[in-house]
Amino acid sequence: MQPHYSPAQVEADARQEWEATRADLAVEDPAKPKYYCLSMFPYPSGKLHMGHVRNYTLGDVLARFHRQQGYNVLQPMGWDAFGLPAENAALANGVAPAAWTYQNIDYMRGQLKSLGFAIDWGREIATCRPAYYRWNQWLFLRMLEKGIAYQKTGVVNWDPVDQTVLANEQVIDGRGWRTGAPVEKREIPMYYLNITGYAEELLSDLDQLSEWPEQVKTMQRNWIGKSLGVRVGFPHHHAGGGTLWVFTTRADTLMGASYVAVAPEHPLALFAARSNLELARFIEECRRGGVTEAELATQEKRGRDTGLSVTHPLTGEPLPLWVANYVLMGYGEGAVMAVPAHDERDFAFARRYGLPIRPVIRTSAGDATPEPWSDAYAEHGVLINSGRYDGLGFDDAVEAIAADLAAKGLGEKKVTYRLRDWGISRQRYWGTPIPIVHCERCGAVPVPDEHLPVVLPEDLVPDGAGNPLARSPDFAQTQCPRCGGLARRETDTMDTFVDSSWYFFRYACPDAPAMVDARADYWMPVDQYIGGIEHAILHLLYSRFWTKVMRDLGLTRQTEPFRALLTQGMVLNHIFFRKGAAGGITYYAPEEVEVTRDAQGRVASIRSAADGQPVEYGGIGTMSKSKKNGVDPQSLIEEYGADTARLFMMFAAPPEQSLEWSDAGVEGAFRFLRRLWRAVYEHVEEGEAAPCDTAALSAELKALRLCTHQTIQKVTDDFARRHTFNTAIAAIMELMNRLGRLEERTPPARAVRQEALEAVCLMLFPIVPHICTVLWRSLSPGEPLAARGWPAVDAAALVEDEIELVVQVNGKLRGSLRVSAQAERAAVEALALAHPGVQKFTAGLAVRKVVHVPGRLVNIVVG
RNA sequence: GCCGGGAUGGCGGAAUCGGUAGACGCGCUGGACUCAAAAUCCAGUUUGGGUAACCAAGUGAGGGUUCGAGUCCCUCUCCCGGCACCA
After folding, report:
1. What pTM did the predictor assign?
2. Which residue is nearest to the C1' sugar atom of B82, using CA?
3. Half-sphere CA count of A499, side-chain side, radius 13 A
């Protein structure tokens, strides 16, 4: 055995052993319990960053740990290979997205391999390959047949200079990222998936997901946003007459409605604008800006009177009809009834525009609602000023009002969801082509299954001005599958969330001639899913939806894809940027800027290292390609080895916590591995350790054995239940420190040391597999580490004769006692009262109470 | 703006069910080894007072519940994630 730890040699050596034994291969075996351990696949952005290292190390630790516990483990890897960054790279460098993506995949695969993850690489998939995305197309066609997929218009960000649709990310302060031009909202036809049809099931099935973080389930529940309310009709005689429908959860306040507001895109708004120039101008103004909810929610609430009125369904009174920028066309009916007295937003709006405020609920604030707004105004209460409904409480009032509306045909109780249908059309090149052909005669015609996949040409290079597919005759021009006439392909591609909504099925059967085969029944569901908390809603919700659709199409028995979920916190780093003259934004990597500090250590200036000009500080945020603040792990791996990188990452913080990146402490992780190596070296150099009678050990050796088995117990719990690898590592370090203080070289001491070192290697193996694999050969020659499994706790070693108790006076620590584990309660309390450190504080005072928590403390209350 | 989290020494973090705050590691200080340095090892390291024993204060801020609060409740501040076209 080498006397010194050499990571490069050790890691090459260990990997050779794993390859020779095909240790990472996953084979379906009905005789063994299966464990499908999945980390969210990466977008191939170029290089791994520390967030990936964290994610994949967590997955690998759990995969290896479960393999040691006897599970048949599947840990696959692949690439979320379609997406916007490849198009951005094309814009920046003129390289085709396909070539750029494949190159990145090759480099990043090499990085993953160098980290020693136990991945079955035979199952690798890339979503940009036709063999994968043909099934996106195939399932889309099935959804179309079942009415789950359908077409309607949607609102997008439009850059009027580049004449192109922008992603929300590409809109900065309401302007296009490249042109600096103010973006506009534009309505275009798109394909939608009816996820709202599954809203109830997506909501109620959350209750089955006992191994998901409560936090994530709460976010999903709120996102789905089920609400019970009433759909209320306001008759009118405009644009040919009709009824304007709104949804409200506060039908009890209907008698306090003082106006009705519609979205700027609402047909009645457009109708009124035809004869109202001022209104038309306002609606035009509302088109400015982006489409995100955050932007709409924070913008100033503004509106205009249409001059039209609608009829209150119960009183028959005319109510003014307003257009308001805070009403969303895509949510509900695109119209709301406004009750300024009991809704904060309506209150502010009514004050601003001088609209009436009519209190109709008696709240804890009383019967009136004077300025300023108080949250109490929104409380439920007894109805007032509401005619025949006066005196009713919330539930009774809603019932009565809904019944009266129903009698007039102007309302009904209704359940609605905040969740909106999933728009999957993207006006982009690098994605799955939507398998539709547009024919002048036949309309939108689905591509027949036998023509799938509709292959995306890989040689196009986007230039920022629209989708190159639309300008590619080879792709766009085709024949109508129905009439054979000249037709045009749909050139929109699918949202990349489609790709990631079912990739975990495909890993189970990557070469299946169908979307999935029987192997998916063996491996699914994923037993442990690991990924960033940023995916808590969208990706996870879409995957759950997709799985339910696949179930309804008879493709799987699963109703939920992920049994247990571990959401890792973000790895954060500083963000630096500079705004261009036109409003565009350029990011700088932390290593590209120089930060100077004043005498107090405060930041004095930030400048670009390249040109010396100032750069702005954007705070800290997630490591990402687009913000250029990712840290490449490569230099860390090269300098210290993969094991040190993995150990440091797991030791830095518990998985769910976000982590501001710093490499301070990497040295410490490396030093620990070096100490471990030396401890094993010194031990094995003395020859084989013979087993001994553990019942006849000295007190010191018995205490050490106790420590070993307490550590196994704690580490097992930390791995299996808590997933706190940082505390598991700390416990192992403590055991190693303890072992280092044992000087004794007698046969019993050597036996106890052998047992401890073996346990340490087995427990550390999931985290630092290379060094443990190699150390094990010397520690236990002839028996592979894999054959040993996870170390077992010896209950006999855990028995303690004496325990330590803490003594408090009035809750303050005043001393400690060592007592026999069998000591009587009264005897322990007498000892505590007699303790000299305690008597100092009890002298002359009456003991009022003694709180005794057995095995922990005695608290003496005096005074 | 809305939804979900978080805040503990100089730093990363620990304290798992309301019971010893600061485990483990980094950094720093001192010492050993060395011609010297690196590496390694040993000791110390929340703050204030004290040679020390020890005492007091202390977990973002303010209030509360309790024999006892980092942990539970209320109010607030700041930071992170998400908000449907970044993935």
Report:
1. 0.95
2. A534
3. 27
